[in-house]
Backbone:
């Protein structure tokens, strides 16, 4: 069984976390009144750094973990902004590729007046085209010296194959965020190699074939994912909270009732919070609650990653 002390392996406290995937610029517009199709409405538009892998990396760094980010940005203003912000918060970006032939990844989201997502468009081509299998293999020393790999699904099939091959070689646990229902199927061949996967309802259906309509069906999907080899499966359900399952236990954690400012980044905060709990040898149930707390704090922030995130803030929000 792959994992740390509760899951079978000691933790090397001096090693880094290797986070692989997208780094982007997020543009989010939130309406200030009910949305009407076909016309412009007043609202607030904000631009911030984002990308699933980058978001997870920042959350982990803000919780005190050592993180190396493996991604790609363009040689443009957006790329420079991402690298500057990452360095400022403590992410090791020395292995992020700066490619002059590609534009930096971008994400565009339209939110209604309550902060719920209406529509999103992503342009992540640089991640799939520049972060190649050859790049991953040449950075194999990062795997050798890591304690865990955390990845999103904005990667090509050949890159995923190389990541799991190197993780197996160096006996590294791998955690994955399926990212979208469109990208999630890429993870299907590797479910038995995953320590943790954190799909929403739509992504879980794609991964395991169980239709998710409520808490009970979500728990059935989580158990199915465990049956397919995942060690820890978490299925998020928005306002209903989440369910989780391992081969030994399962449960439901309700969402924390707070005003929603922006949904963007909450799932990435959840993944980071659970990873943090596992790294620090917390029981699965407590690690999941740490993740829920991180997501709740992020929902209350206009930023994709909450700038004042800390372990103390997490425990203030913790669901008992």
Residues:
């Amino acid at each position: 069984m792959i994992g740390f002390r509760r899951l079978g392996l000691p933790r090397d406290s001096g090693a880094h976390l290797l986070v692989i995937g997208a780094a982007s610029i997020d543009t989010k517009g939130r309406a200030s009144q009910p949305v009407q199709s076909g016309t412009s409405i007043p609202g607030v538009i904000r631009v911030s750094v984002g990308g699933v892998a980058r978001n997870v990396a920042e959350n982990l760094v803000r919780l005190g973990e050592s993180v190396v980010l493996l991604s790609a940005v363009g040689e443009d203003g957006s790329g420079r902004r991402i690298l500057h912000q990452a360095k400022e918060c403590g992410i090791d970006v020395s292995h992020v590729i700066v490619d002059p032939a590609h534009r930096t990844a971008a994400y565009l989201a339209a939110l209604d007046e309550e902060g719920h997502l209406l529509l999103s468009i992503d342009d992540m081509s640089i991640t799939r085209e520049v972060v190649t299998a050859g790049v991953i293999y040449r950075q194999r020393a990062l795997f050798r010296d890591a304690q865990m790999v955390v990845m999103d699904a904005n990667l090509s099939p050949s890159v995923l194959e190389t990541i799991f091959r190197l993780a197996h070689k160096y006996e590294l646990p791998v955690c994955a965020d399926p990212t979208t229902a469109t990208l999630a199927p890429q993870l299907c061949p590797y479910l038995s190699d995953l320590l943790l996967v954190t799909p929403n309802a739509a992504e879980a259906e794609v991964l395991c074939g169980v239709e998710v309509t409520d808490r009970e069906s979500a728990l059935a999907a989580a158990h199915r994912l465990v049956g397919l080899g995942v060690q820890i499966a978490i299925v998020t359900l928005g306002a209903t909270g989440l369910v989780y399952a391992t081969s030994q236990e399962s449960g439901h954690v309700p969402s924390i009732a707070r005003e929603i400012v922006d949904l963007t980044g909450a799932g990435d905060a959840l993944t980071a919070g659970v990873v943090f709990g596992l790294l620090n040898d917390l029981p699965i149930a407590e690690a999941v609650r740490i993740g829920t707390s991180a997501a709740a704090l992020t929902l209350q922030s206009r930023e994709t990653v909450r700038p004042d995130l800390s372990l103390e803030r997490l425990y203030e929000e913790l669901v008992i």
Q: What stands out?
A: Residues 5-9+16-317 form a domain with the UDP-N-acetylmuramoyl-L-alanine:D-glutamate ligase fold (CATH 3.40.1190.20). The chain is about 35% helix and 20% strand.
